[in-house]
Amino acid sequence: MLKQIVECVPNFSEGNDPAVIKQITNAIESVEGVMLLHVDMGKATNRTVVTFAGEPAKVTEAAFLAIQKAAELIDMRNHKGEHPRMGATDVCPFVPVSGITMEECAQWSIKLAERVGKELKIPVYLYEDAQPNKNRSNLSVIRGGEYEGFAEKIKLPEWQPDFGPAELPLKHGATVIGARDFLIAYNINLNTKSTRIANRIAFDVREAGRVKREGNPITGKVVNDENGEPIRIPGTLKSVKAIGWYIEEYGMAQISMNLTNYKITSVHKAFDEVCKKADERGVRVTGSELVGLVPLQPLLDAGKHYLDKQGRSRGVSDAELIEIAVQSMGLDQLGKFNADERIIEYVLRDKSKKHLVDMTVTGFINETASESPAPGGGSVSALSAALGIGLGAMVANLSADKRGWESKTAMFSEWAEKAQAIKEELIYLIDEDTNAFNGIMNALQMPKGTPEEKAARSEALESASVYATEIPLRTMHVAYKSIDILKEMVEQGNPNSITDAGVGLLCIKTAVRGAYFNVMVNAKGLNSKDKAKAMADEAKALLADNHTRIDAILQKVEEAVAF
Fold first, then answer.
1. CATH: 1.10.150.20, 1.20.120.680, 3.20.190.10, 3.30.200.20. Which one for 356-561?
2. Mean of the per-residue pLDDT values for the chain?
3. Which of 32, 177, 188, 270 is the most exposed place for a label (fewest CB within 10 A)?
4. What number of other Cβ atoms are within 10 A of residue 222's Cβ?
5. Running DSSP on this structure, what letter comes out for residue 172?
């Protein structure tokens, strides 16, 4: 079962005093097991977005301490800023990352909200998936009137808080707590200082659109429906909230957007649409910025989108896809975009562990050649397979870009994408084979004095040995999937690269046989002979088929290079 990981992204109404924010983040980091991922201070908005993650109980505790510290340090009576807000901790969402459902996330956020209301006497409103009343689940609706108008709003029967007092504490205001999917805060830069133009573009694209008016769309009389409610003209982008503002720090206006569901409206779709609407209004988009952390997938999707527009293969590495996305959307206009610090999956990687795949080529070879038993043949086999399919991806990309083969670009791009997916799985297996070996070593070091200790050690050793057999067997299967791709590259790829595909096949042949050795030697040590025989038979059959298929394809390479 996956470890439960929750991300929390509280927004604090302070963006000018680093000392205040430091005290808040210190409170967050005081909870063991919680990782502070990112702190994004905005001077013009006078607002800081903090991102941290961990197991749900620990994240809930850290969030409580942060809200408590913010209420102590931030005085809303003196607060001015461009962004709408209603309290010292303006909003505090929980976001599921792994091993946890949205419903479970919502329950943890409700526990936090109840505690904040009861112990800190702060009025709390639930929102998004934590709020059962959908008439008050939208953040912008809850926050309507902002801090200045909330002293009166909170007295209305329909705006009683879900937890805490029904009276606004003037010093720290109220807060909103809930659970939601990844919300991507995204600002698009314009070559104008006009907030008016920026707002018009925001109204063009945001889902809520604009109010319909008679005659002049700006100054005309509002058109109402039969119930007396204003009729709205929807914008072009679903699941998008947007406003226009001027940022003095940058000397430019921006479209400030919240993409509430990037699977409906992606970052690149939002960027392209704003470019189109800006052009219609006589201004240009000069770049954009992501606020806080962003999942990896929307950047990969953007990279592929812009490669498609260029008629190029999308079967490149994640790093290259990210770079294409950054360049295409100008994500580095206002500051360097560091993927290791801005992409949540990268930030959450355990940097305390020594990863083989992060070494230089020389470092990996030297580590292999040292007296340490790991990395051994299993990791080297996975590496060999990764290099082999890497060559397949290279030939596919070269073929997709070959002059005169434009009609084949989509086909080769698809092969290259499949090759990249196999390559990524094999890269994972390089380290995982060593981890499996270390699992056996750890089991061997367990105490074995009492009968109970002996039984526990024996059980742990068997479990670790089974896993150490399964991993190289998985390497065999994943490497075997490379054959179809390399076969296509030999038969249909750029003829100038046929030998590269041939070397790739040789790498796969070596990798599968090398992994086979590890399967067999580890299977021999299993107590469960039925399980051992089943895995050994599977490995033998796969090895035979692998060699037969590869040898037949290599014959074509031999014929091509013969003279």
1. 1.20.120.680
2. 92
3. 32
4. 11
5. T
The single-letter DSSP state of residue 92 is E
Residue type, 258: N
* Residues of each domain in the chain carrying CATH 3.30.990.10: 5-179
Beta bridge partners of 285: 190
Cα 432 to Cα 450: distance, rounded to the nearest angstrom: 32
pLDDT digits (tens, 9 = 90+) for 236-264: 999 999 999 999 889 999 999 999 889 89
Residue 452 burial by CB count (10 A; 0-12/13-18/19+): exposed, middle or buried?
exposed
Residue 238 carries which side chain, given as an amino acid letter?
A: K
Name the CATH superfamily housing domain 184-347: Formiminotransferase, C-terminal subdomain (3.30.70.670)
Instruction: Kindly tell me if the per-residue pLDDT of 111 is higher than 60.
Output: yes
Tokens of 526: 């299993």
pLDDT-based confidence at 1, cuts 50/70/90? Answer: very low
Please say if 433 is a catalytic residue: yes
User: What is the C-alpha to C-alpha distance for residues 70 and 62, in angstroms, rounded to an integer?
Assistant: 12
Per-residue pLDDT tens digits for 136-188: 998 889 999 899 999 999 999 999 999 999 999 999 999 999 999 888 999 99
Superfamily of domain 5-179: Formiminotransferase, N-terminal subdomain (3.30.990.10)
Token pair belonging to 523: 């299977």
29 in Cβ contact with 37 (< 8 Å): no
Catalytic residue among 90, 162, 204, 433: 433
Instruction: Tell me which of 83, 318, 332, 401 is the catalytic residue.
Output: 83
Which tokens belong to 395?
A: 């030939």
CA 54 vs CA 61, 129, 327: distances in Å = 11, 20, 32
